[in-house]
Design goal:
The protein is α/β, with parallel strands linked by helices and 252 residues long. It contains nine helices and eight strands. The protein has helices at 32-38, 60-69, 85-94, 114-125, 138-146, 163-171, 188-198, 220-230, 232-246; strands at residues 4-10, 43-50, 73-77, 96-102, 128-132, 151-153, 175-178, 203-205. Strands 1-2-3-4-5-6-7-8 form an eight-stranded parallel sheet. It is globular and about 40 Å long.
Length: 252
């Protein structure tokens, strides 16, 4: 099976740049070379480097990683509510395409800033909003999220509680990252089938490498499961086409 992939979710952890303990946790290093080595069996067209809670608002590691990884790779960062237009425009030129609100672990701007910032960022630089959130919290956020221009949700929403709301959001155009299969508390195969049925454009696959704090790290069989659940043609969209469209990279 060809492993052509736009990897929508992975972390680069470079101790040359600031790292902040989150609930006492600091991750081990995971460099661009480490990532390339782990993914040598895949045909990578690109991917999204995602800022973790332990990286706070530091942009230096992300700019370095995007420069090293090269064309096809984009960033999803965390910025404070006080970020200036000039800073946002500079990050956009460097390849950043989204802002992450880490509602589960913190380290990002807070829920009170979500709607205002999401609209501002989309209007100024066309970025989407990414949420690391448990599905049980989505019902409260639903009216806000469905009114926003571009939203993605990490790790299949993590929980069976609230999964029905995640399905409704997918129907309304919210994207869902099928990542972190070792983090969720429900059978992944059925969840993929339900989300794909709700909206074939919703699902986007990522490795979640290096799987920080996950009960089970990423396995190559996670990739294979998508094809087994959805069939080869639909899986190709999940592995590649849906993400390339969402991250505004054009056809390839």
């Amino acid at each position: 099976m060809t492993r052509r992939l736009f990897d929508v979710h992975f972390h680069i952890i470079d101790p040359r740049f600031p790292l902040l303990p989150n609930n006492g946790y600091l991750p081990e290093a995971f460099s661009c070379d480490d990532y390339r080595s782990r993914m040598k069996g895949y045909e990578l067209s690109g991917g999204a480097v995602v800022s973790g809670s332990f990286q706070g608002y530091d942009q230096s590691y992300l700019l370095a990683a995007l420069g090293e990884l090269g064309p096809g790779f984009v960033g999803v960062t965390q910025v404070p509510a006080t970020v200036t237009d000039e800073e946002l425009l500079s990050l956009d030129r460097a390849g950043v395409r989204g802002v992450r609100f880490n509602l589960r672990r913190g380290g990002s701007a807070g829920r009170e800033d979500l709607e205002r910032m999401a609209r501002r960022l989309h209007d100024l630089v066309g970025w989407h909003l990414e949420l690391y959130v448990e599905s049980r919290d989505l019902a409260e956020l639903y009216p806000t999220l469905v009114a926003l221009p571009a939203v993605s949700i990490d790790h299949l929403g993590l929980e069976s509680a609230g999964f029905g709301t995640l399905l409704k959001l997918a129907e309304q155009g919210v994207r869902v990252k099928c990542t972190g299969f070792g983090r969720v508390d429900f059978p992944v195969r059925g969840a993929l089938q339900e989300l794909h049925a709700a909206n074939p454009a919703a699902l986007m696959f990522g490795t979640d490498l290096p799987s920080t704090r996950a009960p089970r790290p990423y396995e190559d069989n996670d990739f294979n499961l998508v094809k087994e659940a959805l069939g080869e043609e639909n899986a190709h969209r999940v592995y590649h086409d849906n993400a390339v469209a969402f991250y505004r990279l054009g056809a390839s």
